[in-house]
Known about the structure:
The chain is α+β, with helices and mostly antiparallel strands. The protein has 13 helices and 20 strands. The strands form seven sheets. It has a six-stranded mixed sheet with strand order 4-11-3-10-8-9. It is globular and about 75 Å long.
Amino acid sequence: MCHSLPRGAAAAAVAALASIAGAALADGATYVDGVTYVQYSDDAVALADVRAGRLDAHYAGLSPSLLGPGQREGVRVHESSSGSYSLLVNPAEGGRLNPFSDRAARQALNHMIDRSLVVNEVLGGHGTPMFSAYAPHDPDYAALAAAGAPEFAYDPALAREMLSRSLEGAGARLEGGRWEHGGENVRTTVFIRGDDLARKAIGELLALELERTGITVDREYGDLSKALAVVYGSDPAELRWGVYTEGWGGRAAFVRYDPVILAQMYAPWFSSMPGFNDPLYWNYRNATVDELTRAIYAGGFSGPEERDGMVRAAARIGTEEAVRVFLAARDDLYAVGEGVEGVVNGFGAGVPSRFTAINAQTPSGHMRVGVKQAYQGSWNPVMGFGDAYSSRIWQTLSDPAVFRNPYSGSPMPVRASWEVQTGGPEPSIAVPPEAVLWDTASQSWKGAPGGTLAASAIEYELSMSRWHHGEMMDMNDV
């Protein structure tokens, strides 16, 4: 098992990584000549291939039942706190009563799932309960903890009471142990990811608890491809789904002062809430959380104290709205071949960090990586690579201008260096007259109005090199 480096050694490792990452921008600087991704539907088969040397690493977090004590011969096991589990709840009003269109009913879900059971039994102790978008290991969790981070006790009696009050308020009646409305059973569909053992267990637990309240539950099982069609690709008002067992594969990088996570998990403007900003669909709306998360995203605050206040307010609203209910952060176990060196187990990203392929050294000089899925998400750099599986491959094929140090979470240059001029937080720097802005109304570039001031000015210098086939990069590739 891989252990954490001492503080001094960790600093040295970061310095070495930074120099390697910089060298990777030059010609042929990686240690392997290529990376092959192989899809495995069975983690046990992938683990056996890692042991046999047919795979150099498997990029899916493995169950503790596969890598328990006495089961780690022939592999190196790296553990990382990265992924998480949540419930996405459909709050739409449709042609029949949706029990979760009422916020109080959604809030009842927080008391309906035993998070300790999920961590200890489903995850084998490799995890931590979660009550908001922030896990205890996230840097911004401290901002929540300073004001009392939200926690919800497992209390099925309280959950039933909250749900009963909500349904009675909507005109439903409990008859013979079943809730009825308009002469029909009150029902919901729990979409359960059957291709993920942990999410399957969570979905079954939720369905059972809901049935105990008297709600009729339809279980629908599927993989990512089906979820993209039924959950993310349908009008919520059609009520094809009521609750979906979500899984998050960890972040691409460990991020200090993350500007995105609250918007992604709670804000309609980010297009990851029910309706997904499709103009033809019913869409969840919350102007307050939109305003807060836009300000966090754009740096619209005067200092850390104001930002912390915005983070607390947005997290509180998102938790109270309970459209996305967080359950547990998981500690992923990754299997790597014994002969593989240079693996970068980044905070938040784990072994699938983009730095692993850059830095890895394998016995064959080529790297073979197992993945859980390779085809179900959209392979397109424009509005694609939105799932954890395809995005990990995309990170190996592309270089960002700026990325995050995998241990500190601070920005580090990859394809660009920069100089910052700032007079912030108030705008005080004159915007050059030749500057252009994108006008969303006309869908065209327009000159900045005269006298426009900016809080900061950043000048980027892009770093070009040769492509794998020898051609030099230019601005057409950016």
